[in-house]
Amino acid sequence: MADSDRVIIVGAGPVGSVLALALRQANIPVTLIEALPAPEKDCRAASCHPPTIAMLERLGLLETGIEQGLISPVMHFHDRVTGEVLGRFDLRKMKDPPAHPYVLQWEQYKLAGTIIELLEKDPGCEIRMNTRIEDFAEQDDGITAIVTNAQGETERLPGRYLVGCDGGRSTVRKLAGIEFEGFTWPERFLKIDTRFDFSSLGPHIANRNYFSDPDEWLNLFKARGEDGSGMWRAVGPTLPEQSEEEVLDPAAVEARLQKFCPRDEPYEIVTVALYKVHQRVAETFNKGRVLLAGDAAHVNNPVGGMGMNGGIHDAINLADKLAQIWHAGADPKPLLDHYTRQRRKGQVDGVQAQSIANKRTLAERDPTMREQNLEEIRTAAATPELHDAFIRRACMIDSFAAAEALE
Asked: Is 9 exposed, middle or buried (0-12, 13-18, 19+ CB in 10 A)?
């Protein structure tokens, strides 16, 4: 097999690494390029929903994921103003639960790191860390990635397809001239990591919590953390007019956590980060021999923990289609157009719509609309059929099935 008969993947995060592993399991050679010297260690993107868990199992990763992660079958919705737990949703109590009735809190850097360790032992996968893509040149029978390697030298890497898994600011997407359609939220989001065990405050705190508040909603999730002792992540909005200094002031960070979960002692803050949040989807996920997956193809707000999941769904869908092209001689254009149709539907009708609805529900300020939203959550939690339908939406079960069914 020629050196050029391979897939070049740009980005070794969770999506790029999953794609690389799925392709190798389909006996397709891969070159994996990553600008960083190693996966970034961060508590972000730590939720794997049931459809994603099934994919991890297919790839042989689930056992490690359970060892390194945290099984979370329950999510709680709170009214911060009254302190009421509006609803408890338990995947194990569904009439027809998924094969894996829980969310797996497995941080993206652990997932990517686990896969890279496997791929480093695979002669069919060439891994190029600390390597940046600068440009590409497309030919009739292939594509060449022009990169700057770890030594600062320019190299030309040949392949059959180039897949951008290189994040929301994707160089691959920009080089291909693919529009990134959507909008940016006016408020920035604040992420706070702390080792304090919020479950010690009482049974009203689950591993996954959503607090509604007309001024300052909050997501609160638990992950295992790097050393396994537990790390909690709180995410909420800031006012557009607030300066970075005001938002990141230690007293303001402390006050935010105390507002939602008051306690006598101060919180031990590990890290804080302030970032802009976008809702965008690429106009196409395939253009010639250039393909997009993950944040390079779509970004969304973090309410619901859907972003990484959608990217992994892209990776598995794309790997299956590339396997048909590689080994069954399938016509590439209709298959890759189908990839775009399915995964754009999964985004536009699923992740984008649901994450926007989630955020608006938590942030609603109009008293009448807010009470209506809260009552809908109470009713859903107390009504078996609505309880199950709520979970199927929140955990991407329905949207994934609808995208997969699209012809």
From this structure: buried
**Tokens 């998924």 belong to residue:** 98
Cα-based angle 12, 17, 21 (whole degrees, multiple of 5): 150
Output Rg (C-alpha) for the chain, integer angstroms. 21
Phi-psi region of 257 (alpha: psi -120 to 50; beta: other; left: phi over 0): alpha
**Across 89-96, average pLDDT:** 98
pLDDT tens readout for residues 164-176: 999 999 999 999 9
What single-letter DSSP state applies at residue 260? H
Taking only the tens place, the pLDDT of each residue in 364-406 is 999 999 999 999 999 999 999 999 999 999 999 999 999 999 9
- Tell me how far apart the alpha carbons of residues 18 and 15 are, in angstroms, rounded to a whole number: 5
3-state secondary structure of 112: helix
Residue for token pair 């990776």: 315
* Distance from C-alpha of 42 to C-alpha of 273, rounded to nearest angstrom: 11
Q: Which of 139, 123, 84 is nearest to 290 (CA)?
A: 139
Neighbouring-strand partners of residue 184? 278
Is residue 330 within 8 A of residue 263, CB to CB? The reply is: no
Phi/psi-derived region of residue 37, left when phi > 0, alpha when psi is between -120 and 50, beta in every other case: alpha
The rounded mean pLDDT for the chain is: 95
Q: In what order do the strands lie in the sheet with 180-184?
A: 180-184, 278-282, 298-299
Number of residues that make up the chain: 407
Structure tokens of 87? 């609803």
